[in-house]
Description:
Layout: H1 56-71, H2 79-84, E1 89-97, E2 101-102, H3 109-120, E3 126-129, E4 136-137, E5 142-149, H4 150-181, E6 187-189, H5 199-209, E7 221-224, H6 226-232, H7 235-245, E8 250-255, H8 258-267, E9 271-275, H9 279-292, E10 303-307, H10 315-319, E11 325-327, H11 330-333, E12 340-344, E13 349-350
Parallel strand pairs: 6-11, 7-8, 8-9, 9-10, 10-11
Antiparallel strand pairs: 1-5, 1-12, 1-13, 2-4, 3-5
Amino acid sequence: MWAGGGREPPGSGTPQPHERIAWGTVSSPAEPVSARPADGGAPSAVPSRVEPGLDPAWIAETVARALDEDLGPVPGRDVTTQATVPPSATGTAHLVARADGVVAGLVVVEEVTRQVAERFGLPPVEVTFVASDGEAVGRGRVLAALTGPVQVLLTAERTLLNLASRASGVATATRAWARELAGTGAQVLDTRKTTPGLRALEKYAVRAGGGTNKRMGLYDVAMVKDNHVVAAGSVSAAIEAIRRTFPDVLVQVEADTTAQALEALSAGADFLLLDNMPTPILADTVAAVRAREGRDGVPAKVELEATGNLTLDRAREVAGTGVDYLSVGALTHSAPILDLALDLLPTLQPR
C-alpha cells in the first residue's frame, strides 16, 4: 500500500489516503496488449495499464520543460532537421525496444509529438501503440508507430526517448525485484532518491514494474530519523510534535536496533523503518514487534520496512524475516535506461 497522507501526490491519480500503490494495480489483460481484435482492426491505442496513471497536466508541463532544454525558448528550433527536411515531408517511424525489458513512459509519447507539432505549426502525428506501459517486451519489439511530419518525428525523437527509456529502465529494474519477492508476502518499495523533476514519472515506472510507492515527498508522510530525534530531544517528543502540528499524516520511525524499534512502537509510531540490520537481528526485531501488536495501544498490524544494503540476491532472505516491505533506492537512482530507438522508415511522402 502507498504510505500517502491526505494530500494527492503531484503527477499521479488519486490513491486513497495512507494506501500504498501495489503491484496488483497493474492489470493483466486476458490477451497480449499487442493482439489485434477479431475484426482485424488496429491494436488498442491505450498505452498504459498502470493505475493510477500520470496526471496529463504534469505530463504537459514536464514535456514543455524538456523541449525548452532541447529546442530553446518557444517555439524553438531544430537547426539540422529544419534545414534538411521540408515541412511538407511525411513519414512513419517505429518506436522499438533494443533490449529485453519492461516498458514504461509510453504515456508521454503523444504529448511530446503534439507539442513539437504545435511549436512548428505542423499537423499532428498519429500514434498507434502496440505495447502498453507495464508490459514485458523483447528486443526488436515495435512498441508504437508514429506517422506524420518528418520534422516533428525527428525533432521529438530525443525527448520522447529520454523520458520513455528512463521510465522503462526503472520499470525493468523493479520487475526483477518484484519477481524475486513473488510469493514471500513482501513487496519492493521505492524511495525519494529520484531524478529532480521526474519523481512522478519514476514512481509511475516503479508501479509499472510491479513495485510499490512509498511516500511521494516530505509533505505526505512523516519519517523520524536520527537527526529529528536529536533536534526534538527524543523519539516520543518528535512523534508528539508531529501529531500536534500535522495530525493528518502517518508517522514512520527509523530504527537501527531492536530496542529503538520497540521504543518507537511505544511512542506511537504507525510503522517502522528497520535500517541496515543484519538478517538475524532483523528477524529478531520483527518477532519482537509482532509480539507487541494489538497490546498496550499498539496497532493490531504494524507495517515493517527493511532498508539499507539490500541486494537482489538477499531479497528472499530479507523477506523471510517477516517484513512487509523492502525499500530499494536503487530502483530509481541506479537503474540503467532500457535502450529504445525511434527508427524512421525509408519511404517519405511529400504532403
